[in-house]
Amino acid sequence: MLAGLGITKGIAFATTKWLGAWGGAISVVVLLAVLCQGCWVERAYLFQRTPTEVSRDRYFPNPFAESSEIARYIEANSAAIDKVAILGSEPQLFFYSNRKSATGHIYMYGLMEQQPYAKAMQREMIVEIEAARPLYLVFVNVDYSWQFTNSSPTLIFQWVDDYLDASYRLTGVVDIGWDHSRFVWGDTATTYTPLSKNFITVWRRVRSF
Q1: Among 16, 86, 142, 156, whose CB has the most other CB atoms within 10 angstroms?
Q2: Are 179 and 57 in contact (CB under 8 A)?
Q3: Is residue 54 part of a domain?
Q4: Cα of 196 vs its chain's centroid, Å
Q5: What confidence tens digit (pLDDT) does each residue in 143-201 have?
């Protein structure tokens, strides 16, 4: 708003004080030159790079670019009534897959903070997931998705391995890379070892109780 006000006032000042009728035209030319210079400097971001490339440039290793592919897999292999649990802070997966969350906790940040309710919130999330019995559980092994600290409660990590072993089968691995990410689905995922420290695992429920 201040930039727009400055331009408007500058044109008015140039027109009345300095250059008369030519002041407005010259001011517009200067403005266009400034805008073109900005577009030229940011030409790769604005015109050349794809949205996926821009996302990786700005937010790597957050799995924003990978989320749509994960969601397509979940949507194609589930029914509209099936629920999904995401252990991580990737709520866009619910939107992309058109599936509801198995828990009200769709971000992990509050559960990891040094605050008096963090452990209770983790316990609540665990209870909600176990009660909902989601068809898919997605575990996001990316530090930014958790913002885990040395003082964070570890209850959810102590719980998840046993829960997955008892009721779920690994059905997908997303190996997050700088240039591209590798998606491994089905039985192949059970023997695949991620090359990156940043990866996502997708688990499908195999027990109905």
Answers
A1: 86
A2: no
A3: no
A4: 18
A5: 999 999 999 999 999 999 999 999 999 999 999 998 889 999 999 999 999 999 999 99
pTM for this prediction: 0.81
Task: Determine the pLDDT at residue 17.
Answer: 60
Q: Is 7 exposed, middle or buried (0-12, 13-18, 19+ CB in 10 A)?
A: middle
Same domain for 89 and 40, yes or no, is no
pLDDT of 127 > 90? The answer is yes
The reply to whether 42 and 78 lie within a common domain is: no
Q: Within this chain, do residues 90 and 192 fall inside the same structural domain, yes or no?
A: yes
Q: Are 33 and 45 in contact (CB under 8 A)?
A: no
pLDDT in tens, 24-44: 676 677 778 877 888 888 888
* End-to-end C-alpha distance for the chain, whole angstroms: 58
Domain extent, residue 8, equals 2-48
Q: Which two tokens stand for residue 19?
A: 């250059």
Give residues with Cβ within 8 angstroms of 196, minimum separation 6. Answer: 61, 175, 176, 177
Nearest to 62 by CA among 146, 5, 133: 146
